[in-house]
């Protein structure tokens, strides 16, 4: 027999687990999970298929979707994702996600509010860890307007927050004073709150397209470039300049460390890697500088979507199959403009689809110059320059046609690159700094800056009027 209680409002699932352990006098986490499984009637053979989050939701007598949305950080973590974007948070099929992330924090250390500790004890007789204090960039309690404290201890979440008030560091009142009125920081918090309210993900390609459109309107560079054109404005620079650096170090320190005008794939990639998700924090940073308000950002992301699903607008034509494109290409001798006319699409969309199929634009019917050159190169095995001469075209024109023919392979290459970038973008390589680490990093930078004559934005200089 086990004593079970309900999770408290906004209580983190791991805090709830710790409470169950204490109520039942169980010291080991693993032991508690086993006892919970057997108490809830999970058969031994099924034990490994059921995640801790699901067990806790059963103990809480809540459906897994409700439990995940109310007691874990998954709604934020998976608010924008390319991994199973159709899967609602906690829905059947989420075991892999719950196994990996169900109990995880987003920041490396847990935060608490000393005033909430007192209020919780008054109201519930026990203090607990709140989800809202664990969100990225949150350094003070929205309810009490006081700086948070943070506990640098493994398994702190399994104990009541009251035990950590004396054994934790206070964020420092100066952060509150400096950041509370910062418009862009406030916008970031509001966007994070909005993403926490999601019940299912927004797919990355959709969000990426919205952000790209907005970035273009701001004149930002929206493609990958190892050497961005002179004067090009990068999203990563706009974010870096839009936030106080001390605060930014507690969220995404690599942005502060990066050189101006150098692309940072983890940030700039949200505009040009439509298939690899970045952490929600990165999207929230991007939205904070691209949009004038959190509402505008959240509405724009939701536009054209029921979360997780693109809404088909009334009367939109159904997608033309690859087969139709291939046969139209054959019938029209490889001339793009004629294919477009037959299928009734714009020449641009016909070109995009045909290139995805590896079918280059032959420009004219019959044995025109490009077809002659391509035949010489691909079928007769001639060298590029020779084949171009046979076609009577320049080597550059032939190269362009070869590139179109190889677009299918290029797609695969890009996908490989995106996967690699996604892995590195999935998590900032440098752990977010704690507030005290951020301040001391800031001090050492200031020493370096004063020696080199450079300047650095501090919290204060970052504040908007
Ligand atoms: Zn509080």
UniProtKB/TrEMBL annotation:
Pfam families: TniQ. Residues 423-444 are annotated as: Disordered. Residues 6-148 form the TniQ domain. This is TniQ family protein. It comes from Pelomonas candidula.
């Amino acid at each position: 027999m086990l004593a079970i209680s309900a999770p408290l409002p906004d209580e983190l699932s791991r805090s709830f687990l710790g409470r169950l352990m204490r109520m039942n006098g169980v010291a080991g986490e693993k032991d508690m999970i086993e006892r919970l499984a057997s108490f809830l009637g999970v058969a031994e053979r099924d034990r490994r298929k059921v995640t801790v989050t699901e067990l806790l939701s059963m103990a809480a007598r809540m459906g897994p979707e409700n439990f995940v949305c109310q007691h874990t950080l998954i709604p934020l973590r998976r608010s924008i994702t390319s991994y199973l974007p159709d899967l609602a948070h906690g829905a059947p099929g989420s075991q892999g996600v719950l196994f990996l992330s169900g109990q995880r924090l987003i920041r490396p250390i847990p935060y608490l509010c000393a005033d909430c500790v007192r209020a919780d004890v008054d109201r519930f007789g026990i203090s607990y860890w709140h989800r809202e204090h664990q969100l990225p960039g949150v350094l003070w309690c929205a309810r009490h307007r006081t700086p948070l404290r943070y506990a640098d201890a493994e398994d702190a979440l399994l104990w009541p927050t009251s035990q950590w008030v004396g054994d934790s560091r206070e964020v420092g009142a100066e952060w509150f004073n400096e950041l509370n009125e910062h418009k862009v920081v406030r916008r970031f918090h509001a966007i994070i709150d909005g993403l926490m309210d999601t019940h299912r993900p927004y797919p990355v390609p959709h969000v990426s397209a919205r952000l790209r459109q907005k970035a273009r309107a701001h004149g930002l560079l929206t493609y990958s470039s190892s050497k961005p054109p002179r004067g090009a404005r990068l999203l990563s620079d706009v974010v870096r300049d839009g936030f106080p650096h001390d605060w930014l170090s507690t969220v995404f320190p690599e942005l502060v460390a990066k050189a101006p005008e150098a692309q940072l794939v983890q940030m700039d990639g949200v505009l040009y890697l439509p298939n690899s998700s970045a952490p929600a924090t990165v999207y929230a940073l991007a939205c904070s500088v691209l949009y004038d308000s959190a509402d505008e950002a959240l509405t724009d992301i939701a536009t054209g979507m029921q979360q997780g699903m693109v809404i088909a607008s009334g009367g939109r034509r159904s997608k033309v199959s690859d087969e139709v494109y291939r046969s139209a290409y054959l019938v029209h001798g490889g001339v793009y403009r004629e294919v477009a006319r037959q299928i009734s699409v714009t020449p641009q969309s016909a070109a995009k689809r045909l290139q995805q199929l590896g079918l280059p634009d032959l420009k004219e019917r019959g044995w025109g110059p490009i077809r002659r050159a391509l035949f010489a190169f691909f079928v007769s095995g001639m060298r590029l320059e020779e084949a171009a001469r046979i076609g009577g075209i320049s080597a550059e024109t032939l190269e362009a046609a070869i590139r179109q023919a190889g677009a299918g392979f290029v797609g695969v290459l890009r996908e490989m690159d995106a996967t690699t970038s996604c892995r590195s973008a999935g998590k900032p390589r440098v752990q977010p700094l704690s507030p005290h680490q951020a301040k001391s990093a800031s001090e050492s930078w200031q020493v370096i800056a004063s020696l080199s004559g450079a300047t650095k934005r501090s919290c204060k200089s970052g504040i908007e009027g």
